[in-house]
Amino acid sequence: MPNSRGAFAPSNYRFGLRLSERGYVVGIGDGIALIRGLPTARMDELISFDDGSTGLVFQLSKDMLGAILLAQSQGIKAGMSVQHTGRKLEIGVGEVLLGRVVDPLGNALDGLPDPGFREFHPLEAAAPPIIERDFVKEPLYTGSKIVDALIPIGKGQRQLIIGDDGTGKSTLALDAVINQRGRDVLCVIVLIGQTRASVAGTIETLRQTCALDYTVVVVAEANALPGFRYLAPFAGCAIAEHWMRLGRDTLVVYDDLTRHAQSYRELSLLLQRPPGREAYPGDIFYLHSRLLERSTVLGLPAGGGSMTALPIIETRQGELSAYIPTNLISITDGQIYFDSKLFASGILPAIDIGRSVSRIGGKAQHPAIKAASARIRLDYLQFLELELFARFGARLEAGVEEKLRQGRLLREILKQNPLEPLSEQAHLAWLRAYGEGLLNVLSPEQAAAGLQQVFEQLPGSGLKLESSKSQWLDRLKHWLSETYEPAA
Question: What is 371-483's CATH number?
Fold first, then answer.
């Protein structure tokens, strides 16, 4: 019904005195606002400014709070009024995100209309408790010969990808995403602090390989506010966590957490937090642990889904004992180490097998692949030692010379072109053929061409090569002996 001024008022409206807290801005700059007032503000609460800007409470002190600016207008200035919203930061989730490129708040960056979200998930959430978790028991295939055979990854595992800049870390992660096509695994790629050209290249690669159809790309570019770069991995985790709770298998790539840690350090120094080692705040370990602990396998009562995390971290001159790398190594379930010397010598992927390890992935590895690759890691490490010894020019026995030849052949077999992931059947094929000695007729120079022809001889599909006496192996042995002369 109309009120005394002729306007209509809601029927449940009641006149009365209302009190609300209001603060005011005392400082603004570099994506940070310093605010006085709002004594009951909570961490990670959204606050609103009178000009329509929004912020996220990031720090609480005795008489002032610090907030990250999420949406900033040109009119925001000191003295402006600020008030509570009582809400926490959430991001839209669901199937509408597949194939889209969004920022950490869910806003579209691909030129298409914003997704019509019906469901939302908080960016910050507690990791699933132990009682909800299950054992890692299913493999997640990356398509890489070295990884799937020697450093296996299971669904729900947190496997660190570490190495110097420009050694192929992101390429391996892209291979893993591309290899999930047709496997019912939903992927999230988080790009933190990268240039626009690098982001565009990644998206174009996903589009050309049809991997964008089952992938969400969360982007916080290098020129974005530090708050956006800080929130980006939590946004990607929230998107994948929603699907995990619905019983889906997901894969999240964080590229990379070095820039994420630097953004957190920047925010902390702007808010005058006490600096610690390398000027990082004292809670930098907790920052990444609370993010990565959300990746796990859920038991059936909790949904039965999984979230596999592939965080990427950068080293300088191969220094593994630096602050952030040691933190991430202690949090994750293993690491894949990329060596710049291997990369410079043309051994791609430049994975150092001796420094790489998967602590729990072996329990999820397919039994046939596990049995076929049992001795390859040891044989390869022994070859590296023999090769180092042989450089001194010592006279070697015939048996040692043969081991060196087989080691060089294995090194060539393990080489793989980027963005060409292999199926698990192809992995098992070369592992069986190598274990039976069928590939010994190849010289190291013939390895690439011969291996490709071996894959073309594969019968059918699926892991069916369980027996070393299978007809396929007999046929392959005959074909290799007819095609290649025995290697000297």
Answer: 1.20.150.20
